[in-house]
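User: For my dataset I need records formatted as: sequence, then structure tokens, nothing else. Please produce one.
Assistant:
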Amino acid sequence: MKSKAVIGVNMLRIGENKPNYLKTCINDVYTHYQKGILKPTVDSVHEAKDIGKAHDRLEGRGSIGKVVVKW
């Protein structure tokens, strides 16, 4: 059986204290995304004018995956 976990990290704190480390991590994540290794699940996509709907989706805790706002 494979074990899986969801882990949260305070990116702001890392960015303030170790900006070069954060840059390296973000570049690695993007590289993995480009190679198809990371495949994020998108729950919904909202226009910037509908940001309230995006917030409602998150606040309602019904989303599965990323809630995207297109600027």
